[in-house]
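Exercise 7b. Backbone tokens:
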């Protein structure tokens, strides 16, 4: 088998996997890709997979369209494929807010206002308070009788 024979099939398979993952990411059903945000790509790799999936699917069918002699259809594939590739690459680094799904905007709003589950758990009285790098014993305290405590310059009791 030559590359001309299996190449379009490989591109179609890669494209369909990315397309389905991108649709699920936009719908909020697939959120495991958030682990990649910031570690592999600073942008939105899960959301970028939608655009890159469209690109790979279109590239995989473009050879078939060219063989049939439909130059106008191939031009239409080109018109959709190139912007899809460009948006997919840019989305790996950044996406404008109007292209972000509603669930991402809502999650950002909750994080900023402290309404998300992690913020509530890290707050005083939460399940994670004092467990993640901040020892509650090292926190400056006021004695129960209201007098100022003897503290050094770092807020530690002597």
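Sequence design result:
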């Amino acid at each position: 088998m030559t590359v001309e024979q299996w190449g379009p099939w490989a591109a179609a398979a890669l494209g369909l996997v990315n397309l389905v993952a991108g649709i699920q990411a936009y719908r909020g059903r697939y959120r495991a890709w958030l682990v990649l945000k910031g570690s592999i790509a600073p942008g939105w790799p899960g959301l970028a997979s939608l655009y890159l999936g469209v690109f790979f699917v279109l590239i995989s069918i473009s050879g078939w369209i060219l063989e049939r002699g439909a130059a106008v259809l191939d031009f239409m594939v080109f018109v959709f494929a190139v912007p899809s590739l460009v948006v997919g690459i840019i989305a790996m680094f950044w996406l404008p807010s109007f292209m972000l799904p509603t669930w991402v905007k809502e999650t950002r709003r909750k994080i900023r206002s402290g309404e998300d589950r992690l913020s509530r758990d890290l707050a005083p009285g939460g399940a994670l308070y004092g467990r993640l790098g901040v020892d509650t014993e090292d926190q400056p305290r006021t004695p129960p009788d209201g007098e100022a405590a003897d503290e050094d310059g770092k807020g530690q009791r002597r």
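Instructor comment: The first helix runs from residue 3 to 27. DSSP finds five helices and no strands in the chain.
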